[in-house]
Amino acid sequence: MNKNLAWKLVVIVAILLLFVGGILGVPKDWSGAGVMASIKNQIHLGLDLRGGTHLILQVQVNDAVNVDSDNAVARLKEDMRAKKIAYADITKPDVANHPDLIVVKGVPPDKRSDFQSIVSDRLPEYETTSGAENSWTVSMRPQNLADLKNRAVAQAIETIRNRIDLLGVSEPVIQEHGLGQYQILVQLPGVDDPARVKDIIQSTAMLELKLSLGGPYSSEQEALQSKGGVMPPDAVLLPGRNPRGNSDQGEVWYFISRAAAVTGRDLRGAEPGRSGDTNQPRVNFVLTSEGGRKFYSFTSAHVGEGLAVVLDNRVMEVANIREPIRDQGEIEGGFTEESAKDLALTLRSGALPAGIKYLEERTVGPSLGADSIRDGVRAAIIGMIAVLAFMLFYYHWAGVNADVALLLNLIILLGFMGFFGAVLTLPGIAGVILTVGMGVDSNVLIFERIREELRNGKTPSSAVEQGFGHAWITIVDTHVTTIVSAAILFIFGTGPVKGFATTLVFGLAANLFTAVFVSRVIFDWVLSRKQRGEALSI
């Protein structure tokens, strides 16, 4: 055996052992059960094979727009008051359908330019349109509105992913759902309790820090009676948790400012801690630089008043503002160790910019996954055996070459998936079978070219050389075009479609190696053992 052929065989054996390691991992023991457990740990199964929970959520993006426009209304009132610009009323006439629209009535004509300057300087994402009777419509620019809604979806996906990670779910799918506007697809393999998942996701609803304007009250009626039966302007009445130390009291109510000082988008982190004076549990939070600037301005104006932590339109805590707060502060109020940890966790992972609505909920049982695995594996085995038998029958001993390349192709494909943590789905098994077909196609192209060269009177070594040389371009062309198609499926497809694309791309990459390099080395090895002029069995 020449040295050139020897190092090629060493490379093939090394790659084979490497990818076998990717399939097996490191078994705890080498018994049959231990090896199977290690393989299952390496090859991750998707929702359709393993079973689990499938959810489609819709982000209520208008919640995020409402928060932004409420803050814009508060800013307008503050700045117009500072510049002594009179107005009759500032309202949002269609909160449900067009929360980005603000109508300002009664602006004096001589203050027109001052009003426009406030909007352009303080609210650059909004534009103004004049109306009848000295009224103005302040609306968010279309591009800014679209960006805000898209950011709400992106942030919701990230927040949900952070909270799902607490479940310890392996290989969850959390991504934008392309079949609906502002929708999120959540697939959790191995999780068969959707109620628990929904509770965890719902607990991460919209977070806001607002001014407390009164409370707690034992009922809505008591709250309204305290204000003479009239809802205070720019306030909302929200339910809340019982005050600390009054666990026997029923649900309580608070008057809370409509505009938020800080939202979940402004929060950078939160951790449980202890007070330096009393060593009592508390929650320390940190804001972004922009959030810190806004929060300092807010707390400076409201020292001594109540700060409400509002989560999903429910008051979680109310604490006193002792001094102006910039980018960090603490929340105190009789916490236990556990409640401080819970609140910190809620603040960290609860920064959803908008509420969510459940559109679809399905639980896939593991028995369905087992049936799919059994049927898919049976189809793959039958197809593989049929292909191997055909290659042996039609190409004689050269068919052994093709069969070895195909088996190595399958080992490399599964090893790829083990190393990269790719998820095997039922469409992924179809991708494996298609890869086998593509591998056979490559061998057929090469073998038929070799046969043609032999019929033209070439020697076996020359026929092999010419066969591989002429078939190479065609093989690369077919593989590259298929890989590009699979890449498009991966980019734009959802979970199962991505599974198909993943196995197809990995399989085609492996096939380029096995069909061209491995198959050629086997031919060279066979030729090296033949006498000069001896026929090639093909």
Can you offer a commentary on this structure?
The chain has helices spanning 3-24, 32-42, 47-50, 61-82, 112-122, 142-165, 194-202, 220-226, 289-301, 337-349, 366-395, 398-420, 426-455, 460-492, 495-528; strands at 44-45, 52-59, 89-91, 101-105, 126-130, 136-140, 173-176, 183-189, 207-217, 235-240, 252-263, 267-274, 281-287, 306-311, 315-320, 328-331, 356-364, 423-424. α1 (3-24) runs antiparallel to α15 (495-528). The model has no long low-confidence stretch (mean pLDDT 83). It has 538 residues and is of the alpha+beta class. It is elongated, with a radius of gyration of 33 Å. It has a 5-stranded antiparallel sheet. A 4-stranded antiparallel sheet has the order 7-8-2-17.
Which characteristics define this entry?
15 helices, 20% strand, four-stranded antiparallel sheet, 538 residues, five-stranded antiparallel sheet, alpha+beta, single chain, elongated
**What is the oligomeric state here?**
single chain
**How much of the polypeptide forms β-strand, as a percent range?**
15-25%
Quickly count the helices.
Answer: 15
Q: Show unreliable segments.
A: none
Main sheet makeup? 5 strands, antiparallel
Radius of gyration: 33 Å
Q: Tell me, briefly, the overall form.
A: elongated
Count of β-strands: 18
Task: Please state the average pLDDT score.
Answer: 83
In short:
This protein has 538 residues and is of the alpha+beta class. It has helices spanning 3-24, 32-42, 47-50, 61-82, 112-122, 142-165, 194-202, 220-226, 289-301, 337-349, 366-395, 398-420, 426-455, 460-492, 495-528, and strands at 44-45, 52-59, 89-91, 101-105, 126-130, 136-140, 173-176, 183-189, 207-217, 235-240, 252-263, 267-274, 281-287, 306-311, 315-320, 328-331, 356-364, 423-424. The two termini are 22 Å apart.
